[in-house]
Amino acid sequence: MYTVSASPHIHSRQGVNRIMYDVIIALMPALVVSIIFFGLSALFITLLSVFSCVVIEFCIHKFLFKRTDFSVKDGSAVITGMLLAFNVPSSVPWWMIIIGSVVAIGIAKMSFGGIGNNIFNPALIGRVFLLISFPVEMTQWPTNSFNAVDGITGPTPLALLKDGIMSGKNILQIKGLPEYQDMFFGNIGGSLGEISALAIIIGGIYLLVRKVITWHIPIIVLVSMFVFSGIFYLANPYMYINPLFHLLSGGAMLGAWFMATDMATSPMTIKGQIIFAIGIGVITMVIRMFGAYPEGISFAILLMNALVPLLNKISPERYGNNLKKK
Amino acid sequence: MTILYSILVLSSLGIIAGISLYFVAKKFNVIENPLIDEVEAMLPGANCGGCGYPGCRKFAAVLVDSESLDGLFCSPAGQEQMEKIAEHLGKSVDKKAMQVAVVRCNGTCDVRPITNEYEGITSCAFAAQLYAGETACSFGCLGLGDCEMVCQFDAIHVNVLTGIPEVITDKCTACGACVDACPKFIIELRKTNKKDLKVYVSCVNKDKGVVAKKACEVACIGCGKCVKVCPHTAITLQNALAYIDDEACKLCRKCVDVCPTHAIIETNFPEKKKQETDSELE
Amino acid sequence: MKLRKKYSTQTFSKGGIHPLDYKLSNSKPIEVFRVPDYVQISLSQHIGVAASPTVKVGDYVKVGTCIGESAGFISARVHSSVSGTVEKIEQIIDTSGLYRTAVCIKVTGDEWESHIDTSTHVVTSLEYSALHILEKITDAGVVGMGGATFPLHVKLTPPDTAKPHVLIINAVECEPFLTSDQSLMLAKAEEICVGISLIQKVLDVDAAMVGIEMNKPDAIALFKQVAQQFNSIAIVPLQVKYPQGGEKQLIEALLQKEVPSGQLPISVGAVVVNVATAFSVYEAVQKNKPLIERVVTVTGLEIPNPSNFMVRIGTSIHELFDAVGGIPQNTEKIISGGPMMGKALIHAQMPVAKGTSGVIAVPYELAHRNESSNCIRCARCISVCPMGLQPYLLQVYAEQGLYDALESNYVLDCIECGACSYVCPASRPLLDYIRLGKNKVSHVIRKRKQK
Q: How many other C-beta atoms can be found within 10 angstroms of the C-beta atom of residue A150?
């Protein structure tokens, strides 16, 4: 007896799992760097976060949705867990991670219907929830173990900059800003996964090669950040810092390569993606330069996430519709 | 003092908003025949479209506006309710026979062997577009439940064991949604009565006898025995398929006994001798 | 023998995918398949009205006898592919999956109609007038052999308002597995070129372009050589990309012009004809031979000996599989046509029709559908859609029955190439729903026009 179904009869067999596992692999370099700089506490935080995200998604699926086809297998909860951990300081208490993952999975993801239906990036919702609820714990960054004694906390480069500017100093007067190569390799204070630009770029290139993401969102986010801050830098280099500093500091790299490119919460068409990415870049820079918070990419991405349903109204260029141009 | 201020501010806000709402409501008031609202309230409100109009409100407007109610009938509301509406409007309504949806396929899994496996979306319309069907009978029910999906009254359900939809006659309002949804034209609205006594050919297979019988044990093979035995000439045979005209049929059930493949079905008759049921009906 | 792959960048601009090739039979020359003992010739092997039978049960027919007369404007004649007695005329399920009237013939001997030239000599002279050629094509019942089976004589008589100025020959064969066009091109290059010249004469166009994908370097080389004898036949190598064989995609790849939505290729002055059809035109005009046989690729992953056969129309597909070593045990689906756009068959006893370019036995590992899950909005369906549509959106609209929204999102532009369903990581049945939506929307439009 043969099976009858409509064409196509062959499929690419590149499932959701493969996409998710590729992202997990791409996050590995950043994880390795964070373990090198922050020690085993980084690994502990990441594993705890992944574990709690997976358990929460499993429980919601089983007890609230009452479904047996567990979406946990697709690995998206693992990514949310990893990204949540990458966005917090390695010194946060363990219960805070659990609260963060409940918010991330329970509120930001599953309450919308699970994978693909969420409007906002779950990991960022978790992170922002923690940042607003526990501002003290979330802004104490352990200086990494290479150049200081364990357990001492210090500010991130962006926080240093913000404090300096707020107290009326100009750029040259601010002491303790790190060198660019330290920022590139990760020898700075900050959240777990965001410190090393190099590790994130390696992961990003892996995603590009595996065709999980296209270049549009990350590159345009970074370019628009660079251009926007560059204009201010040229206008007044004493008030505004070199744009390269902005690209390498804070969550710019992690946000551009891994958070903004999240499939469910980014626009479907290239045109929409370009607008989305420019919006993220500009809003990030506005918050960093003029806002109260030293870092703004999480807010920028969440704000633009809210616009995605609108941006999805932009339809792709149809065949047979652009005759006049030719 | 602060309490007083806040109370004053809030209540003045409320008063201003109330006054402006009043004027807005006056200015943009749409004048509509109040009868339409009343008639709409009397209709079932299922918006099934069985009357041929988009939604109950439109139908209510048509009822109010038209001179006579000929040809306008809401089957879900039923005869009684239609009469009430007509009375309310000061018009009269035709007598319409009670009808019920009937699934004219009896090819359950055990009598209609499947010849291939369908893999795809759960939609009869799509499967019918794709090919003849999972069994050798290309006329029979596909069992994917388009009728169940369109039914607003929860009156038709595909039986998981047989793969054939079954009508819950008490709930069926004869709106005709399933009749339109069935791509194989299996479902039909037939005359019924208070006890829901029906006799019908539960098959739409137009293949010749041999082919039909091979595909399904209970198919109508077009032998014509029922045509000969029917005392009221209610049965016609076309394309090797018998059809019982529900207007002419007197429910004598002679055809049921002679059908060699048991394709003719009787419903809700008591398990008694034929004689008694006849007299009961008279 | 592996020829050096030359590089070509010419292709269509939007979307497209690269499914695995599986051209297992691409080095196999055409073998002539034996005359079967029994044939079932369907009377609707073409798009449009089914032909009406002109023979009765018990009649003796020869090879090439007309058994079905064209019964409408869009319709085509059907001829007997064998000699023998008509045993019955009955309803059978053919490769389309639906019941169709078919003439069943019990074969005795192999007697051909006397006017058919059965020699292998290539007749190159173009002595007939355009009208005469068209008449012969109509008489021979030639239809498009790429799979759509549109009657050729209708395609070759465009409305007076539109004048074609280029003939495009579709030799792309972008479907995986199929090699019937390739093998035909290698065997009958000269005949095909004569056929192209004949069609050019009917259409009164000077230019002809043959689009061939780069994965057939042998055919490209041979055609470049043969085409030198014919002026105005240009061979254009194209980048390998599915669905390049789609009419609209091929026109864009060759002419860099796009056919406006809802219009025919003639609106940009092009007529697209399949390469196998060009060969049938040659046979119909130069040899008086109606369309009674075609090249069929018989293949599959576990078929021991995948082959290209020249098969009489009406031969049972099962016989073809028997000749290549039988249908493997683990076969999940039998597909007529290519795996991307072909039809899955209910059983293997069906007859070969004019549009059957290949039959494929596909095992479970390749054919099964994964269970579908939530759409993750990866936008792959959008990026591969060659028509620039949004399959994910159309699917949701079709599922919800929002036919107005479907129409305003141009669901009718969909060419059903299946690229969206192919790439979907969540294995959603995108094309199933879009097809359903297309059907419903065209129904709605028809109803609206009636009003």
A: 11
Same domain, C141 and C232: yes
**Rounded Cα gap, residues A219 and A274, in angstroms:** 10
How many residues comprise chain C? Answer: 451
Span B70-94, average pLDDT: 80
Mean pLDDT, range C326-335, rounded to an integer = 91
Close Cβ partners of B226 (under 8 Å, ≥ 6 residues apart)? B201, B235, B242, B244, B255, B258, B259, B264
- Our CA angle for A209, A16, A125, nearest 5°, is 90
Report pLDDT for A154.
66
- Residues C311 and C171 placed together within one structural domain of the fold: yes
Quick one: pLDDT at residue C1?
36
Q: In 10 A of CB C159, how many CB atoms?
A: 8
Neighbouring CB atoms inside 10 A of B236's CB total: 13
Nearest to A74 by CA among C375, B121, C430, C423: C375
First to last CA, chain A: 52
Give the range of the structural domain holding residue C431, as residue numbers without chain letter: 380-450
Instruction: Say what the pLDDT of residue C229 is.
Output: 87
First-last CA distance in chain C: 62
CATH number where C144 lies: 3.40.50.11540
Nearest CA-CA distance, residue C127 and chain B, Å: 45
Residues 6+ apart with CB under 8 A from C442: C412
Domain that holds residue A196: 153-311
Distance, CA of B167 to CA of B187 (rounded, Å): 10
Burial of residue C303 (number of CB atoms within 10 Å: 0-12, 13-18, 19+): buried
Cβ of B119 and C436 within 8 Å? Answer: no
* A208 domain residue, yes or no: yes
Taking CA–CA distances from B123, the nearest residue in chain C reads: C436
Q: Is the ipTM of this complex over 0.90?
A: no
Residues near C309 by beta carbon (within 8 Å), at least 6 away in sequence: C30, C31, C32, C33, C295, C296, C298, C320, C323
The H or E element that residue A166 is part of is: helix A157-166
A30 in the same domain as A68: yes
Q: Is residue C38, in this structure, part of any structural domain at all? A: no
Residues A168, A50 within the same domain: no
In Å, how far are A158, C61, C248, C254, C380 from C264, measured between CA atoms?
60, 38, 9, 16, 28
Helices and strands counted in chain B (H then E): 11, 9
Same domain, yes or no: A96 and A222: no
- What is the amino acid identity at position A118? N
Residue B9 in any domain: the answer is: no
Same domain flag for B80 and B209: no
Q: How far is C385 from chain B, CA to nearest CA, in Å?
A: 21
Return the number of other C-beta atoms located less than 10 Å from residue C138's C-beta: 19
Model confidence, pTM: 0.88
Taken in order A223, A228, A231, A237, is the CA torsion positive or negative?
A: negative
pLDDT, average across residues B153-166: 90
Residues A163 and A253 in one domain: yes
Chain C residue with CA closest to A320: the answer is C260
Residue C366 near residue C333, CB atoms below 8 Å: no
Q: Which residues of C touch A6 (CB under 8 A)?
A: 344, 429, 431-432, 435
